[in-house]
Amino acid sequence: MRTVLAEPVAAAASSLAARLAGITVEVRGHGRDASTGAPAGAGVVWRADGLILTNAHVAKGAVSIVLPDRRVLPARLAARDVEQDLAALVVEATGLSAAEIGDSDALRVGELVLAVGNPLGVVRALSAGLVHATGRRFIQADLRLAPGNSGGPLADARGRVVGLNAMIVGELAVAVPSRAGWRFVRERLGR
Amino acid sequence: MDTLLSLSNDLAAAVERAAPAVVAVHARRLPSTGIHWQPGIVVTAEHTVRTAEDITVTMADGRSLPAVLAGRDPGTDLAVLRVADAGSAVATPGDDAALRVGHMVLAIGYGPRASWGVISALGPRWRSWRGGDIDRLVRLDLVLYPGFSGGPLVDAAGRVVGLNTSGLARETRLALPVTMVTRVTDELLRKGHVSRGYLGLGMQPVRLPEPLRAQLGLGAGALIVVMVEPAGPAARAGVLLGDVLVALDGAPVSDLDDVQARLGSDRVGAEILAVVLRGGVRTELRITVGEQPRRRG
To answer: Which position among A10, A28, B29, B291 has the lowest Cβ density within 10 Å, counted as fewest Cβ atoms?
Structure first.
C-alpha cells in the first residue's frame, strides 16, 4: 500500500528529529547527579561560537556539556535568571551547528511542535505534540515530556526553535518562549 | 511545501475553524466547555452543570452571557442551555459515521486550547453507567485536560464529530457521536428531558429448565416478573406476577439491559409484543409502552 501523506510526514518528521538532535546538548552536573551518569537536563546550541541556552534549574553550579558529537566540555555559566528559568552557558568550541531560532509570538494553537531532550536518561529522545495554548509568558504544549527534557528545544514544523521546555504541569508541557531567550541573551550578554 | 508543515498548518486551521463556536460554561466551581450548536443554543456535558441557576456562558469573543438550562439528560451526559445570542458562529457538524480507528482528531477547549490524538476504538451501542443508551462507542487516545468535558471533538478539517466527556467512564476518554448529540439536543429542546419507555415491571433474571428450553426453542436466560405496578402499562396488558418474559418484539431477553434496549424514547406510546411463559405455556401479550416517570429532586 502506498500512502499519500503518512509516509512523507513520517519521513519529514524523522529528518527533522535528526536535525534537532544535532542542536541539542546534554547538560551534566558535577555534583551528586554526575555519579548516576544521568544528564541533569538538555540545552540548545544557540550560537555556533559555543553559546548554549538552558533552564536556570538545570544549570545549578558547575556543569559539563555533552555535544551531539559526544565531546564533553566544561561549561562556564555566563548568565542565569531564576525568574525566567533561563541560563546561558559558554563552552570553548567553534563551528557548532546552531539552532535556527523561530518567533514564539507567531505560534498558532494547534500547530505541530517537537521536543528533543533526555527524558529519564534516554539521550535525545523525541516527543511530538501540538501547541495547546499561547500566552505571553509561557507556551503550553499538548506533548509528553519527562524530567530530563528541561532546557531542551521545543521546535515548530519547520525545525525552528520556538521555546525551551521547562516544566510539566498536570499533563501539559510548559516552555519558555524563544522571544524570552532572545531578550535574555541581548540584555544579559549584550549580544 | 514540506509535508510536516502542511499538516501543521491544517491542524492549526482546524482549531481556528472550530474555535468560534467553542464557549466556556460556568455552572460549577471550575468552568467546562460548551459548543454553540444553533443560534442561541449551547450544548455541554451534563455532569459539568452542577447548578440550575446563575449559569453563565462566555462566548468565543469573550462576552459573558446569562444562560438558562433548557434541558438535561444525565443518562447520555448532555445538557442544553439557552443564551441570548444569535450572532456568534455555530458549530459545523461532521460525519461521525465516517470515523475510523486511527483517524487523527482534536479536542478543543475554550481559549482556544487544543489536544491532539487519534480515535482509539469504535464500538456498538452501549449503556452508560448513568443509564443512557449511547449510539456508538467512540474511545479517544488523547488527553482531555481539566475543563475539556462538553467541548467538541473535531476531525482534521475542523468539523465537529463528537462531544467530549470524561463523565461516562472512569479513566477512559470518550466522545458522544455528533448525530446522537443532535437527536438528544432536539428532544431536550422540545421536552426538557429525554423520555424512556416504561413497562411498570420489576423483574429478575432466571435460568430456564432444559426441557422447557428445548420444547419451546428458547435461550438459557429469561426474566421473571416479581412486581407489577398496578394500572401500569404491563398490568393493563394483562401481565401477571410470576410470568416469565422471554422475548420482546421477537428478540430474546435474558437481562434488564436487553429490555432497556427495546424501550428507547421512540417507543413511548407504541405497542410492543411480549412473549411470556405462564404455567409453562407460551403466551403473547401486547403492551402499550408508557413513559418512565422522572425522578424528582
So the answer is: B29
Rounded distance between C-alpha atoms, residue B97 and residue B118, angstroms: 16
Determine the distance in angstroms separating the CA of A129 from the nearest CA of chain B, rounded to an integer: 7
Task: Compute the mean pLDDT over every residue in chain B, rounded to the nearest whole number.
Answer: 93
Rounded distance between C-alpha atoms, residue B24 and residue A2, angstroms: 42
Question: Among residues B122, B78, B82, which one has the least CA distance to residue B99?
Answer: B122
Q: Which residue of B has its CA nearest to A15?
A: B4
The residue-averaged pLDDT of B212-227 equals 87
Q: pLDDT value at position B196?
A: 86
Q: Do B2 and A157 touch (CB under 8 A)?
A: yes
Are B87 and B13 contained in the same domain?
yes
pLDDT for the residue numbered B297: 38
- Is residue B210 over pLDDT 90? no
Residue B240 lies in a domain: yes
Omega before B112 cis (within 30°)?
yes
pTM recorded for the entire structure: 0.86
* Distance set, CA A63 to CA A3, A54, A110, A125, B84 (Å): 46, 12, 36, 21, 60
Residues of chain A with pLDDT under 70: 1-2, 31-39, 136
Q: Which of A1, A100, A109 to mutate to test the interface with B (most CBs of B within 10 A)?
A: A109
**Residue B171 corresponds to which amino acid?**
E
For residue A125, report the phi and psi dihedrals to the nearest 5 degrees: -85, 150
Going along chain A from its start, the domains and CATH numbers come out as 16-90 (2.40.10.10), 104-184 (2.40.10.10)
pLDDT at B296: 47
Domain boundary among B157, B175, B194: B194
CATH number at residue B35: 2.40.10.120
CA distance A156 to chain B (A): 8
Q: For the domain that residue B261 is a member of, what is the CATH number?
A: 2.30.42.10
Euclidean distance between CA atoms B86 and B260, whole angstroms: 38
- Which residues of chain B are within 8 Å of residue A12 when distances are taken between CB atoms? 2-4
Q: Nearest CA of chain A to the CA of B2: how many Å?
A: 8
Same domain for B189 and B211, yes or no, is no
ipTM of the complex: 0.88
Contact B153, B164 (CB under 8 A): yes
- Closest to A75 measured CA to CA, from A110, A39, A114, A121: A39
Question: Do residues B37 and B159 both lie within one domain?
Answer: yes
Final residue of a structural domain among B159, B194, B229: B194
